[in-house]
Design a protein that fits this description.
Elements (H helix, E strand, L loop, with lengths): L6 H10 L14 H12 L10 E6 L2 H11 L13 E7 L4 H10 L3 H19 L3 E5 L4 H8 L6 E9 L13 H4 L6
Antiparallel strand pairs: 1-2, 2-4, 3-4
Helix pairs in contact: 2-5, 3-6
C-alpha cells in the first residue's frame, strides 16, 4: 500500500478539525469537494460490511434553510439555519451477519458504524478546507417531511458543512493519562 501522507499530516488534520458553528453564507461548497467528502463516508468501515447508512445531502439553498430551521430548536443550533450543506445520516438495515453479531454480543453495530462514517465526513471536510458540525438535536419529523425520508427510518445525525468564518479554537481535552492506559484499566 502506498503511504499517501505522513502520520504527522493526519494528526495535524485531527488537531485542526473542530465543530464550526458559523459559515460564510456567500460561499457555496463546491460539488467536487462534496463528492470527495461523501466518498470518504461511503468507504468508511462497518461491522460485517453492512454499511447501515444512507446520506441525504441537502444543497438546495431554500431546503437547506428549512432543514436548518428544523435543526434549530429550543435555542439550540441556531447557526444551522445558515449552513449551506446538511448531510443527513439515516440508519438503514444491517445485514444478517451484523445483525447476528449484534444479538450475540449485545452491541448495536449500526450506531458504531454511523459514528465512524460521521468521523470520516468531518475529517474529510477539514481536509477540504471546510468546517463541519455533527448535530443530534433536531426536529426529526419535520426534516423527514421536508426531505422525503420515510417515517419508519431513523434520522440519526445532521452534519452541517460550509466554509467557516471563525478562527480555530484551542482544543480542550482531558490529559492523556486520564483517558489512556496500557494493558490494564
Amino acid at each position: 500500500m502506498i503511504d499517501m501522507f505522513a502520520e504527522s499530516d493526519f494528526l495535524r488534520l485531527v488537531e485542526a478539525r473542530q465543530s464550526d458553528r458559523a459559515y460564510d453564507v456567500s460561499r457555496p461548497v463546491e460539488q467536487e469537494k462534496l463528492e470527495r467528502i461523501l466518498q470518504a463516508a461511503r468507504l468508511s468501515p462497518s461491522a460485517c460490511n453492512a454499511q447501515p447508512w444512507k446520506f441525504v445531502v441537502v444543497t438546495d439553498p431554500e431546503l437547506a434553510a428549512a432543514v436548518g430551521k428544523a435543526t434549530a430548536g429550543l435555542g439550540m443550533n441556531k447557526f444551522a439555519r445558515n449552513a449551506p450543506v446538511h448531510i443527513l445520516v439515516v440508519e438503514e438495515s444491517m445485514n444478517f451477519t451484523s445483525f447476528l453479531g449484534a444479538k450475540i454480543k449485545d452491541k448495536y453495530f449500526p450506531l458504531i458504524d454511523i459514528g465512524i462514517a460521521a468521523a470520516h465526513i468531518v475529517l474529510a471536510a477539514e481536509s477540504e478546507g471546510l468546517g463541519s458540525c455533527i448535530l443530534g438535536w433536531f426536529d426529526e419529523k419535520e426534516i423527514k417531511k421536508l426531505t422525503g425520508i420515510p417515517s419508519g427510518k431513523r434520522l440519526l445525525l445532521d452534519i452541517t458543512i460550509g466554509y467557516p468564518v471563525k478562527e480555530k479554537r484551542r482544543k480542550s481535552r482531558k490529559p492523556a493519562e486520564k483517558v489512556i492506559s496500557y494493558n490494564h484499566y
